[in-house]
Amino acid sequence: MTTNNRSFETFPFAGLALDPIHVGTGGTRLGRVDNTIVRDPVTRIPKIPGSSLAGVMRAYTAMAKEKYPQCAGLGQPGSDGTGGHCGEANCPVCTVFGFAKGTGASGGFAGLAAFSDMHVLLFPVASQLGPQWITCPMALRQLCNGKSQDFDAPNENAIYRKEKVQTLNLGWLLLPVKTDWQQLDKVTEVIKKLHIPDYIISRLCVVSDKLFIHIVNSNLEVRTSVAIDPATGAAEEGALFTYEALPRTTVLFWELTCRNPEHFRIDQKEVTAVTSPERVRKVVDTGHSYLEHLGIGGMGSRGMGRLRVLKTEDPDSADNTEKEGS
């Protein structure tokens, strides 16, 4: 049983891209590259949709829970009525991620886990001092959801960092460096709670929201590929294409909302696979090691997609110990 009767609980996550990550928009576009990646429709900053994350995490969790391989994927039964999602109240995959099975009142279940979009928190950029990881108040505010912490907007035409240098280039852009933004220490404190590596924190830079959008979109990784003619083994004529990706060591942030299973029924049966929002999170955790090795998004055969989850607990409750029994 749960230790409280809350309807849901939200858990923050941070992830470090071990490879470039390409989650495409589908098809080709006229512009700088043929195959673009998904962007936020308002800020135009690249992101990974929650639907993409939920899909791969369902597949990886089913792989980790070896007893439930049929509960991955779309889950529609075959023409003979066999296969598909089991839809049982004791299945950790179907209860956590939901299922679609047949029609009628008992034809599906929405699932106990809901994934937010994965947003860029820290973005790596080349400079004369080596790689720097930039962020902005807009990216930092997502860490303060429902909390009192907030971040003011710094000067639009400067880079804020702890170590003083006169100027610093971020890619093609040369800007003055300042150290007098009063919230730099608070930024570092919040970032550290996500277990982000020290080598990234030591090279942390803060810029304005406006600059962040331009810097990110100007420094995405762009690759060129060509189809191979199977008959000749050489490049196929007219098959050259380009695609963009979030670069390696980008730090992404997202949230997992876990519903309380005590408030739900499947075919009028109590959910027994998980007993609390914390247990829902632990089921999702089982797929994280697969995310680190098998990746997310497209171009996986071209060295893309691997993501290491850095943090699986709320920074404000990291010292709390789990009181619920196994």
Structural summary, described in words:
By secondary structure, the protein is an alpha+beta fold. The chain folds into two domains: 219 residues, no CATH class; 92 residues, no CATH class. 20% of the residues lie in helices and 25% in strands. The protein contains eight helices and 17 strands. The strands form five sheets. Strands 1, 2, 5, 6, 7, 11, 14 and 17 form an eight-stranded mixed beta sheet that branches. A three-stranded mixed beta sheet has the order 8-10-9, with no helix packed on it. A two-stranded antiparallel ribbon has the order 3-4. Strand 3 and strand 4 form a beta hairpin. The longest helix has 15 residues. The C terminus is likely disordered.
